[in-house]
Design goal:
There is one protein chain. This protein is an alpha/beta fold. The protein has 11 helices and 16 strands. The chain has 2 domains: 9-73 and 132-198 and 315-397, FAD/NAD(P)-binding domain, CATH 3.50.50; 84-117 and 201-313, 2-Layer Sandwich (D-Amino Acid Oxidase, Chain A, domain 2), CATH 3.30.9. The strands form 4 sheets. It has a 6-stranded mixed beta sheet with strand order 5-12-13-14-11-15. A 5-stranded parallel beta sheet has the order 7-2-1-10-16, with helices on both faces. A 3-stranded antiparallel beta sheet has the order 3-6-4. A hairpin with a 7-residue loop joins strand 12 and strand 13. Helix 1 packs across helix 2. The radius of gyration is 21 Å and the shape is globular.
């Protein structure tokens, strides 16, 4: 596809939001360059499986276009049930049924006040995809526009554009505008907002793991949340999505995500970059007393794939205002990092990509007012998402944030 001769849109970071924005620009024949500090797309593990909301799917479909979206859609898993089932991890029983017979509902059940959490997004199915698969599809077609091993640490305005500044002191070619999409540690976001964009460390930690799909037979198809609030150190829960048609194939692995209140999960030497056996051992210890129908998820886990993760969140009240810079803006976690509660973060990030991509496509590239229009609309839905994610995390993780809380 031939791109126009205009100066490129510069994008920092090659995560989901940045690559999806690249797809939108590619379709509109708008030149762009993506700068990523990693050396390749496979440098880092890609984390857990993502549940896609109606809004998230709509945004992805708009940005990819009909043909590439069909490729994406075929890769997505579709799980029946339409909602999340909560289990008492110790008894293995349905929390709702226990509550009817005088049992004590868990934290999430109290939060939901007895109402089922509807997760369905299309056709009555819960739609999900592995983060790595999603990233690879978004990368397809953008390969020649990604510059690996380029760590963006800021930007410099010019008389008619902007340049990205790299960690080695060099600078990019001049672009029409710069989009900061390099995640929670974004230097572009800090420079643009003059420190108003903050990412707080909630203190809560978790572990990602996976096991052969046959280990999930005791659960069966559906989205499950297993909670154990009997531990004196604090509550522990695991969420997993069991897809149909693969439960008898030991070569297929399903993932699970373990979360806990602050102080429960502690990596050796406070090093959360450690993967493998240390994380696996902690997950097994925390779930040792769980019901036999759940134990195979941990007894049969692929220990080498276990990984710690920190749970962070942007300012809980929402996306702050800053003095607008017409040629610089931010997308995804760089502007609205969220807890995993509710699975809102990635869905909000792809909405950024679709919105900014649409505005740039309609203008044929950068134009006066594009950045302001994007930020005005983004602040509305993103602030609502951050508030919702934080509210659920307060109930699920027992976290509390204020302006004095530590930042990352």
């Amino acid at each position: 596809m031939a791109l126009s001769t205009r100066k490129p849109i510069l994008i920092s970071g090659a995560g989901l939001a940045s690559l999806l924005l690249g797809q939108s620009l590619l379709r509109a024949s708008i030149p762009f360059l993506i700068f990523e500090r990693d050396s390749s797309i496979s440098t880092r593990a890609q984390g857990y499986r993502l549940r896609l909301s109606t809004e998230g799917l709509d945004a992805i479909e708009f940005a990819l276009g009909p043909d590439k979206f069909q490729t994406f859609w075929k890769v997505c898993g579709k799980t029946a049930g339409g909602g999340l089932t909560r289990l008492n991890a110790v008894t293995g029983s349905d929390v709702a049924q226990e509550a009817k017979h005088g049992g004590r509902p868990d934290i999430a059940d109290q939060e939901a006040k007895g109402k089922p959490l509807d997760l369905g997004s299309r056709g009555g199915k819960i739609v999900g995809i592995a983060r790595g698969e999603m990233r690879r599809i978004f990368y397809s077609g953008c390969e020649s526009f990604v510059r690996w091993s380029h760590h963006v640490i800021g930007y410099e305005a010019t008389s008619s554009g902007v340049r990205a500044v790299f960690a080695d002191g060099s600078k990019s070619v001049e672009g029409e505008m710069l989009v900061g999409g390099e995640g929670i540690y974004s230097k572009v976001a800090r420079q643009l907002s003059q420190g108003k964009l903050k990412v707080f460390d909630t203190g809560a930690r978790g572990i990602h793991g996976q096991a052969p799909s046959t280990a999930f037979k005791g659960l069966g198809e559906g989205v499950w949340r297993m909670a154990d609030d009997t531990k004196p150190s604090g509550s522990v829960f695991v969420i997993t999505n069991v897809r149909p048609g693969e439960l008898d194939d030991p070569n297929v692995h399903f993932g699970w995500t373990l979360g806990a209140q602050p102080g429960v999960v502690n990596a050796p030497n406070d090093n959360y970059a450690i993967t493998g056996r240390p994380a696996a051992d902690i997950a097994k210890a925390l779930t040792a007393g769980w019901h036999p129908r759940l134990r195979p998820l941990f007894d049969e886990m692929a220990e080498s794939e276990a990984a710690f993760w920190k749970i962070t969140c942007s300012t809980p009240t929402g996306v702050p205002e800053w003095e607008s810079e017409p040629r610089v803006t931010v997308i995804g976690d760089a502007v609205h990092s969220m807890t995993p509660a509710g699975g809102i973060g990635a869905n909000t990030a792809v909405r950024d990509s679709a919105l900014l991509g649409r505005l740039l496509s309609e203008a044929g590239g950068y134009a006066d007012g594009v950045t302001a229009a994007y930020e005005k609309d983004m602040r509305v839905y993103a602030s609502e998402a951050v508030r919702g994610s934080y509210g659920m995390a307060k109930a699920q993780f027992g976290i509390t944030l204020d302006e004095n809380s530590p930042t990352v």
